[in-house]
Design a protein that fits this description.
elongated; single chain; two-stranded antiparallel ribbon; mainly beta
């Protein structure tokens, strides 16, 4: 379509020997990284970028990933072969649009609007695949007003205040979780000299 649509597709298969894993110190106080496993990650990534007009662009991407241990016995003697590797979403999805509006004369010369959505699929927080972060998505936006001397605008992240966990770990038998950032809103200004 005269370069108005760009598509990229990637297939991947990654075999890892000596996969790094987080293991507890025998005393139970702390942890260390050990090269103790074999793993395989396989999947596909697809990206589409469409130029609707010179001032309007849309894009989307999808990634599907199956990342599992091929061989791994943890320090407790538990065989974790075929368990999913922690912190690896089963899929990722994003979509968005960029719009530019040019004003004829006046104080503001251009307005840029960016709206995006990112989605992370289900992922496990630890190697035994018990603690789970279910699939979730966040919506973000940024609006910029521009002239030759300055930019001003506002932004918003996680607009709909989606609850999710950003990180999880276990220490001395106790589980800890870091909550994801709630809805955030801000304004900005930039002077161009």
């Amino acid at each position: 379509f005269n370069k108005h649509l760009i598509a990229n597709v990637s297939f991947f298969l990654i075999d890892i020997k000596d996969q790094q894993v987080l293991q507890p110190v025998p005393s139970g106080q702390g942890a260390y990284i050990s090269n103790a496993a074999m793993s395989r990650s396989k999947g596909i990534e697809i990206e589409l970028n469409g130029i609707i007009t010179k001032n309007w662009q849309v894009w989307t991407s999808l990634g599907i990933n199956e990342a599992k241990y091929r061989e791994y016995t943890n320090p407790d003697g538990l065989d974790l072969r075929n368990n999913y590797i922690p912190n690896t979403p089963k899929f990722t999805f994003s979509m968005g649009t960029n719009i530019t509006h040019e004003f004829n004369g006046g104080f503001i010369e251009k307005m840029h609007i960016n709206l995006s959505y990112q989605h992370l699929g289900k992922q496990y927080w630890e190697e035994e695949n018990v603690a789970i972060q279910e699939s979730y998505g966040t919506t973000n936006t940024k609006v910029t007003f521009e002239n030759k001397h300055f930019d001003i605008g506002f932004w918003a992240k996680n607009i709909f205040n989606i609850d999710y966990h950003a990180f999880y770990f276990i220490s001395q038998g106790t589980s800890y979780v870091q909550l994801g950032k709630p809805a955030q809103f801000g304004i900005f200004a930039k002077i161009k000299i």
